[in-house]
Design brief:
The chain is an alpha/beta fold. It is built from 14 helices and 23 strands. This is Precorrin-2 C(20)-methyltransferase.
Length: 498
């Protein structure tokens, strides 16, 4: 009979933290395999060295590379993949001969553990069992005497190998975090913690539960000598637990969350949304922002922009960190202007607030990208809503745009109260543009009910539009492009009259 493969979690380092089952499997295994570097001893073997016997076959898994560079033609990924392929075949030979193999793994085998790569290669060929171990994150929390999460809080595990911007985008003051694999990434991680406003809560520990364990204040860490077996914990902190002396008072940020898709929210927008104590916005837009414990939300109708802005400013004036949530880009027919206009007309105290505008992908950018590059040359953006400006002004601007031969992005084309203006806009544009001028109706771009219709000025149908639709109208040079996959794209050349 073939032998059985075991992935054995040893816990964080203290031999007394090995489970009884893990000890039994190690003692009974015919072959004990463990990872080790070319130079130096194996941490995994050291943890269980007193349990190994002379009768057991030891199989060191010597990594060909750790932090060094390589001249392998496939780079790091290729040389490591080859290493696991070779080790899997060596282990398979023992299993074929009927010997049980225990692969030792610090922490838990499936939590950033090297065993998972052998599991991928062998579990479908041999009987395999994984013995869980105490992860280093939980050992670190115990040694630091700090609870990680409370009630319905979230715990996020982040590898320090992420970019600084990616770390900042994921960190926020009200969730708990563990950042692993520090080593040479320490300085980058420290900068990210500072940028995310959680540096003062972060706790550092290296070699948790091992004989050389150290708990050091972050400011005292020697960044040149941070070991791989080190991590940073950022415990859960509720809004009422935040040190008010370090909080940024009177802050209001108008943030654009893009037109629909969650993937279009920028890292900067994600960060400020996570840091806010209060969110204010049109309810439909607030629904697109993930819920966070302790955050207050104030949703309202879409027609009360001024009231919404004034409410947000009042909250900020009381010392709250407020985010005004806007669809698309907040500076394009959206809440950035409403907030600044309220500041201009409001009490003097509002002028001393920390006011920031965080851009977002606009609806016209998203719609244009869906069908090519219709705004690739000079273009104009116009709202057909006459709620805040007279229709006569809109008519005058339509004539000016059409006569100047701009490509045109039309926002707010129609509503339940405005049924006829879009047809009049079509008539005006038709007086200046050829019937075959490309027209795009882009509805709910980036959302599940997205609908894109490509037509032309002659077949322009106002019934295709509603308040969730953005319309793109080409200039005299805008072209349709038929691709070989039967897909149609539209673009406006960058040259004009040359």
């Amino acid at each position: 009979m073939p032998g059985q493969l075991f992935g054995v979690g040893l816990g964080p380092g203290d031999p007394e933290l090995i489970t009884l089952k893990a000890l039994r499997i190690i003692r009974q295994a015919h072959v004990v395999a463990y990872p080790t570097a070319k130079h130096g001893q194996s941490n995994a073997r050291c943890i269980v060295s007193s349990e190994l016997t002379l009768e057991q076959i030891e199989l060191p898994m010597i990594y060909p590379i750790t932090t060094q560079t390589t001249d392998h033609p496939g780079g790091y990924e290729a040389i490591i993949a080859q290493f696991y392929d070779d080790m899997a075949e060596q282990i398979a030979a023992h299993l074929h001969d009927g010997r049980d193999v225990a692969v030792l793994c610090e922490g838990d085998p499936f939590f950033y553990g090297s065993f998972m790569y052998l599991h991928d290669r062998l579990a479908h060929r041999f009987s395999t069992e994984v013995i869980p171990g105490i992860p280093s994150v939980m050992a670190a929390a115990a040694r630091l005497s700090t609870p990680l999460v409370r009630r319905d809080s979230e715990l996020t595990i982040l590898p320090a190998t992420l970019s600084e911007d990616a770390l900042v985008a994921r960190l926020n003051p009200w969730s708990a975090f563990a950042i692993m694999k520090l080593g040479r990434n320490f300085t980058k991680v420290k900068n990210a913690l500072s940028r995310a406003g959680v540096l003062s809560k972060a706790l550092y520990i290296e070699r948790a539960t091992m004989s050389r364990e150290q708990i050091v204040h972050l400011s005292d860490v020697d960044s040149a000598n941070v070991p791989y077996f080190s991590l940073i914990l950022v415990p859960d902190s509720r809004p009422d637990q935040i040190d008010k002396s370090t909080a940024r008072p009177g802050q209001i940020t108008v943030v654009g969350v893009g037109p629909g898709s969650a993937e279009w929210i920028t890292p900067e927008a994600q960060q400020v949304l996570a840091e806010a104590t209060d969110l204010v916005g049109y309810q439909r837009y607030l629904d697109r922002v993930p819920l966070r414990s302790g955050q207050r939300r104030f949703g309202s109708d879409n027609k009360v922009e001024a009231e919404r802005a004034q409410h947000a400013l009042s909250l900020a004036a009381s010392g709250r960190r407020v985010c005004v949530v806007s669809s698309g880009d907040p500076g394009i027919f959206a809440m950035a202007t409403a907030v600044l206009e309220s500041v201009d007309q409001g009490p003097e105290a509002w002028r001393s607030l920390d006011i920031r505008i965080v851009p977002g992908i606009s609806a016209m950018q998203a719609a244009a990208a869906r069908i090519g590059a219709p705004l690739g040359h000079d273009f104009c953006v116009l709202s057909l809503s006459d709620r805040l400006k007279p229709w006569e002004v809109i008519v005058k601007r339509l004539h000016a745009v059409a006569s100047a031969d701009f490509a045109l992005a039309i926002y707010n084309p129609i509503s339940s109260e405005r049924k006829w203006q879009l047809a009049e806009a079509q008539a005006i544009l038709s007086g200046y543009r050829a019937p075959e001028t490309p027209v795009v109706f882009a509805r709910a771009v980036g959302r599940p009910d997205e609908k894109i219709v490509i037509t032309d000025l002659a077949r322009f149908d106002p019934d295709l539009a509603d308040m969730q639709t953005l319309i793109l109208v080409g200039s005299s040079t805008t072209r349709n492009l038929a691709l070989s996959n039967h897909r149609e794209m539209i673009y406006t050349p960058r040259t004009y009259g040359v």
